[in-house]
Amino acid sequence: MSINRYKITKTISSIFVHTFLMAVAMTCLFPFIWMFRSALMTNQTIFVDKGLIPSTIHFQNFYLAWTKGGFGMYFINSVVYTVCVVFGIVLISSLAAYAFSRLKFPGSNFLFYMFLAAMMIPLPGSFVPLYVLMNKLHLVNTRIGYILCMINVGLSLSIYIMKTFFDKMPSALEDAARIDGCSKLGIWLHVALPLARPAIAVVVIFNTLNVWNEYILAMLLLNDKSLMPLQRGLMVFQGTHSVDYPLLMAGLTITVAPVVLVYLFMQKHIIKGLTAGAVG
Amino acid sequence: MKNRVFDKFSFLEFKGVAENYLFILPAVVIFSIFYIYPFFEILNLSMHEWNGISLARDFIGLGNFKEIMQDKVWWSSIGHAGYITLIALTFQNMLAFALALSCDRDIRMRKFYRIVFYLPPVLSEVVVGLIWQWILNSGMQSGKPIGLLNYFLTKVHLNHLVHNWLSDPDTALTCIAVVHSWKGFGWGFIILLAGLQTIDRQLYEAAHVDGAGVFSTFKNITVPMMVPVFVMVMILTILGSMQVFVLVLSMVGQGLVYHTEVPVTRILASMTGMSRFGYACAQGIVFGLILMIGSFMLNKISKKAKQE
Question: I want to staple B164 with a disulfide (CB 3.0 to 4.6 A). Which of A116, A217, A223, B145 is the partner?
Answer without folding.
Answer: B145
